[in-house]
Amino acid sequence: MPHIAIISSSIRSGRQSHRVALYFKNYLEIRNLATVEVLDLAEYNFPLSEERLKYQQNPSAATLDFAQKIKAADGVLIVTPEYNGGYPARLKNAIDLLYDEWRRKPVAISTVSAGGFGGMQVITSLQFSLWKMQAWTVPAMFPVPKVQEAFDENGAPKDPASTDKRTAGFLAELLWCVEANQRMSN
Prior knowledge:
The protein is of the alpha/beta class and 186 residues long. The protein is 40% helix and 17% strand. It has a single domain (3-185), classed as Flavodoxin domain (Rossmann fold, 3-Layer(aba) Sandwich), CATH 3.40.50.360. The chain contains six helices and five strands. The protein has a five-stranded parallel beta sheet, sandwiched between helices.
């Protein structure tokens, strides 16, 4: 069974995107599609990245832990809010800490916003950063407009049938990429 790391990117109080990360965790576990670990950036206190992990002389325990969890994951699902047309600085910092860990790693992206566009302005810049690190970004996207109306605080969708239908296709793409990557690596 594949192992998926879900990165919950927002560290703001009252954050809404974490609801979506919890939803994906529950969806994958309930259907026995993957083992899952949520890497909540609000729980990591990364120093501002002055250098990639492999060049740091005394990396923090949190940085080493995060790197190991990304490396061990068969795939990564990033859930990120849109902040003023971009993604959170904490997420950029976490991505930039690593390099080799991203190489050929299947990465799916879910963007979230309180407005009607679901964070779609974020996707291109985030994909580009990941491409530069040789990650394999999954072509399927999962935008969540008006997240505060779409999920409750525990990650339960307000419209389960419609949300689950969209999720099935999105996660099928991620899991296909994970399987293809595993076959090519053997």
